[in-house]
Amino acid sequence: QVQLVETGGGLVQAGGSLRLSCVASGFTFSNYAMGWFRQAPGKERELVGGTKWSGLSTEYPDSMKSRFTISRDNDKNTLYLQMNSLKPEDTAVYYCAAAQTLHNIVEMTADYWGQGTQVTVSS
């Protein structure tokens, strides 16, 4: 069965860094665009960033570009999110997702979603 399992979340102080991982199984990972999303309490889910199947093309909202970086290792069926200079406002559940195209990721019309991992940034 299809699974996307996020790990690497936790508690970090403001200014710190975290690296999230998403391990995929049950589908051909290398054929799919991948993305990271987050949802804070009381807020709608928002795009953090996405990457084409090759990893050569990426999309980020302007608010994410300076501190968040997406990468992937197709040999390991794994998507990564490097988060730097974290702020309390980054506190959220972070989800990974898979879609046929990067456009689908940006439009949040993904085919598969993970269960999420909690990231909490303290002051």
| Total of DSSP H or I helical runs spanning 4+ residues | 1
In round numbers, the mean pLDDT is 96
Largest sheet: 7 strands, mixed
Which bin fits the share of residues in helices? under 10%
SS-derived structural category? mainly beta
Q: Oligomeric form of this entry?
A: single chain
Written as H for each helix and E for each strand, in order along the chain, the element string is: EEEEEEEEEHEE
Cα shape: globular
**DSSP E strands, number:** 11
Our measurement of the CA-to-CA distance between the termini, rounded to an integer number of angstroms, reads 40 Å
Measured by DSSP, the beta-strand proportion falls in over 45%
Radius of gyration: 13 Å
Low-pLDDT sequence parts: none
Can you offer a commentary on this structure?
This protein is mainly β and 123 residues long. The protein contains 1 helix and 11 strands; from the N terminus they run βββββββββαββ. It has one helix spanning 102-106; strands spanning 3-7, 10-13, 18-25, 33-39, 46-51, 58-59, 68-73, 78-83, 92-99, 112-113, 117-122. The strands form 2 sheets. Strands 2, 4, 5, 6, 9, 10 and 11 form a 7-stranded mixed beta sheet that branches. The protein is globular and about 40 Å long. The protein starts with a strand and ends with a strand. The mean pLDDT is 96.
